[in-house]
Amino acid sequence: MTADAPRRQSWSASTYDTHARFVSDLAGGVLDWLAARKGERILDLGCGDGVLTAELAALGADVVGVDASESFVATCRSRGLDVRVMDGEALTFENEFDAVFSNAALHWMTRPERVVAGVRRALKPGGRFVAEFGGHGNVAGIVTALEAVARRHNVDAALAHPWFFPTTEAYQAMLEKDGFEVKRIALIPRPTRLKTGMAAWLSIFRQPFFDQFGARSQEVVREAEDLLRFALCDEAGNWTADYVRLRVEAKKL
């Protein structure tokens, strides 16, 4: 175990299926932009538990998935998918894919220049990169609440916001600098109903933040939830996360 291992986000395929299935359920827009065709070779970058990988394969594409989570990769392989454990910031493919696809993963990769360079290497000339992930303003209310909790308890506030949430201008400039032509890019507000509530979302997506509190972690989850209740919970008790997604289609020149 490395010294910073407790700071890293970890994943359980079964927990993800229960509390975060909306991630793949709401991917229709980015799949439409991809418009996968039969016989194409596609890399699914940050494929998670493989639900979308399988969907692309069912369309007749030759799909390879990569994810840093061994739990997710094991789940994918049990479904017969070609998925490999790989760091998205250190892709090893060369001129192999017609398209690189990613949904709800790139914001976890905080050295985006390395990701973009790896995607470019992985694509054939003229290949396309289609992705959707958290953009500028994503979960801003949630991050603000966690920052407030961190300051109140004098803990590491950096663990409240470990993500890369760029503006369209910044991300387009990054892609163009690395030899892509951006065909279209947009920030898309997408308030997202949390069927299992805010406490479950906080516990799953910001586990390292709450691990700082040890045995008091669930008490602090409730404290953060109370700060968010006015803005993100309706009168019937339904919670909504303040998501904003960045969606992009780019071509390797």
How would you sum up this structure, described in words?
With 253 residues, the chain is α/β, with parallel strands linked by helices. The protein contains eleven helices and nine strands. The protein has a seven-stranded mixed sheet, with helices on both faces. A two-stranded antiparallel sheet has the order 7-8. β1, α4 (51-58) and β2 form a beta-alpha-beta unit. α7 (140-153) packs across α11 (217-232) and α9 (198-205) crosses α11. Mean pLDDT is 91; it is low at 1-6. Keywords: Methyltransferase, Transferase. This is Class I SAM-dependent methyltransferase. It comes from Taklimakanibacter albus.
What is shown here, in short?
This protein has 253 residues and is of the alpha/beta class. The protein has one domain: Rossmann fold (3-Layer(aba) Sandwich), CATH 3.40.50. The protein is built from 11 helices and 9 strands.
CATH third-tier fold name: Rossmann fold
How many E-type strands? 9
Question: Which second-level CATH architecture applies?
Answer: 3-Layer(aba) Sandwich
What class, by secondary structure content?
alpha/beta
Beta-strand percentage range:
15-25%
